[in-house]
Amino acid sequence: MLEGLIQDYQLTLPTMLRRAETLYGYREIVTRKPDKSFHRYTYADFVSRAKKLAVALKRLGVESGERVGTLAPNNYQHLEAYFGVPVSGGVLHTINPRLHEDDLSYIVNHAEDKVLLVDGTLMEVLESFWEETNVKHVVIFDHSEDPVPNGMTSYEELLADADEEEFAYPEFPEKQAAALCYTSGTTGRPKGSLYSHRAIALHSMMVALGNTLALRETDCVLPVVPMYHVNAWGLPFASTLVGAKQMMPGAHLDAYSVIENLEQEKVTLTAGVPTVYIPVLEALDEEPENHDLSALRSMIIGGSAAPKGLIQAYKERHGIDVIHAWGMTEMSPIGTVSTLTSELLELPEDEQLDYRAKQGYPVPFIEIRARDEDTDEFVPWDDETMGELEVRGPWVASSYFNTEEGAEDFTEDGWFKTGDIVSIDEHGFINIQDRDKDLVKSGGEWISSVQLENALMAHEAVAEAAVIAIPHEKWDERPLAVVVLKEGQEATTEDLQKHLQGDFAKFWLPDAYEFIEEIPKTATGKFRKLALREQFEGYQFAQS
Ligand code: ADP
Questions:
Q1: Is 335 close to ligand 1, i.e. is its CB under 6 Å away?
Q2: What residue ranges in 183-219 does DSSP mark as E strands?
Q3: Range with lowest mean pLDDT among 84-98, 241-255, 364-378, 430-444
Q4: Which runs of consecutive H residues, i.e. helices, occur in 446-492?
Q5: Does the predicted model carry a pTM greater than 0.85?
Q6: How does pLDDT run across 260-317, given as a tens digit for each residue?
Q7: Is 15 marked active-site?
Q8: Cα separation of 301 and 322, whole Å?
Q9: Among the atoms of ligand 1, which is closest to the Cα of residue 524?
Q10: Looking at residue 526, which CATH number applies to its domain?
């Protein structure tokens, strides 16, 4: 091999932070504080505090590779930890405060977190589990009103005592671990994905590509997706790399606050799960003339399927482009993005919408294939044949952290098995039909709960819909649709059945509809199908 004559430059977070310091010191970072007022400072302030945090962590005894947990909403302190922890050589472990206390102590112990950085608003959550852990230091992001309990450290005091002059940008190998995220446990015990500096640097560059999210300095980015949900899809890292203005919503994720943030800060790109943007759409629909979201160029929706009706409604009624994306904790997380290619942009609007509603095609350096579970063969890219999606790429996990479990999720040739059942079309666009275990298996055929849910949620009276499999004597399983109606709206079983007819094979139509007040959700805002299945255990269809 003739080796190229190129510098062996390592892709690390210290170099990203140094770049931000050198070039973007003037750029703003805005946070919605617990009392809903706005905190503002610049990248220069942010970098200075992140460096102080790195110095302070060293003083607390955090050594290279040791884990520092965070328990906080999207705010500037959390952003400081995003960089301060990894540039100190430590590993940033973001923890989802909405998890059950048993999961919280399990995760903190499994990760062996040495220090926890906890937002002052989450003391109750902290108290529910931390005595079950071996954490050495608890540091509180203090908001002036809450005193720090005995035995814990004030974040502000910690920073005040740290000398920025002691900080020197370290040089370390790009393969070093930088961040750790646990899967939210939709499928069994939480398992950790351990990201390297290189993976985060490359994922950030990918997010800035024109074909993906096209992030740039002139953007103002509002991640509604929490920083404890797969690093807010990498947006805080990517925004810092390109010097975009950042708008952190704090814990205020209700439609009203989100809209206020979007308008006031002239946000250009926002991202989150469908359950956040469904109420935002309803609120906008109520008084469209009172809102000006003309600065907003992209609304990235992922985490679970963005219903086609939602994408269409945003575009038609509010001129907002929804970009559908798919990813996983094991993928840092972005894998596919539904930006249309030149060829697809020539199609009529309604056909374009079909592609926008798919999860998109793989971003650069992510490769995909889908395998038929029965034959073990790869399925053709014919938009019909379903198979389990497998992926590989420079920000895809190679195994789980500190466990033998989940070894079966990786193929012999090193691809990761996603557990998502997809079809792939000739353009490489994937259509997620279901999670492996959520498919309804009826009479030897598969019924996609996701497709039925999306179609139901396109009905004007439906706020949320989840379809689950109910055991059936004759057909093995049959679909039950669980529906939440919009306030003040009505729809009967017949209305909904009629709405679906024509779009689906007859055997796909739900055998029954149940109307409930609310669909239980996971800690990351997805429908908790497991809980629904429990709720409807033993369910009998009227005529079956
Ligand atoms: P968990 O696996 O704990 O639910 P993740 O956030 O890693 O947490 O979830 C990844 C899963 O979410 C994917 O495997 C897929 O099933 C689902 N998902 C993510 N984005 C989409 C999307 N755009 N459409 C449908 N499903 C999605």
A1: no
A2: 192-196
A3: 430-444
A4: 449-457
A5: yes
A6: 999 999 999 999 998 899 899 999 999 989 999 999 999 999 988 898 999 999 999 9
A7: no
A8: 7
A9: 6
A10: 3.30.300.30
Is 295 within the bounds of a domain?
no
Concerning whether 330 is annotated as a catalytic residue, the answer is yes
> Residue 376 sits in which domain range?
364-435
Distance CA 372, CA 389 (A): 9
* The total number of residues written for the chain in this structure: 544
Mean pLDDT value across residues 437-462: 86
Ligand 1 atom at minimal distance to the Cα of residue 419: 14
304 Cα: distance to centroid of ligand 1 (angstroms): 5
Decide if pLDDT at 235 tops 60. yes
Out of 204, 227, 261, pick the residue that ends a domain.
204
Report the CATH number at residue 106.
3.40.50.12780
Q: How far is CA 407 from CA 336, 400, 416, 419, in A?
A: 24, 8, 10, 13
Tell me, rounded to whole angstroms, the distance of Cα 362 from its chain centroid: 17
Give yes or no for residue 432 CB within 6 A of ligand 1.
yes
Domain boundary among 413, 435, 457: 435
Q: How far apart are CA 345 and CA 343, in angstroms?
A: 6
Span of 267-276, 491-500, 519-528 with lowest mean pLDDT: 519-528
pLDDT above 90 for 3: yes
- Region 246-250 average pLDDT: 98
Q: Tell me what pLDDT residue 99 has.
A: 84
Q: Which of 328, 400, 437, 453 to mutate to test the pocket of ligand 1 (most atoms within 8 A of CB)?
A: 328
Of the listed 66, 80, 174, 330, which one is catalytic? Answer: 330
Q: Is 186 in the pocket of ligand 1 (CB under 6 A)?
A: yes
324 touches ligand 1 (CB under 6 Å) = yes
**Alpha helices, H only, 99-154:** 101-111, 123-129
Dist CA 278 CA 519 (whole Å): 14
Residue of 417, 441, 486, 521 with catalytic role: 441
Sole residue written with tokens 């055998």 = 511
Mean pLDDT of 21-30: 98
Residues 95-133 as b or e (16 or more Cβ within 10 Å = b): bbbbbeeebbbbbbebbebbbbbbbbbbbebbebbbeeb
Residues in contact with 509: Cβ distance below 8 Å, sequence separation at least 6, in sequence order = 479, 497, 500, 501
**Is the shortest distance between the CB of 191 and ligand 1 below 6 Å?**
no
Is 51 an annotated catalytic residue?
no
pLDDT digits (tens, 9 = 90+) for 338-379: 999 999 999 999 999 999 999 999 999 999 999 998 789 999
Residue 398 lies in a domain: yes
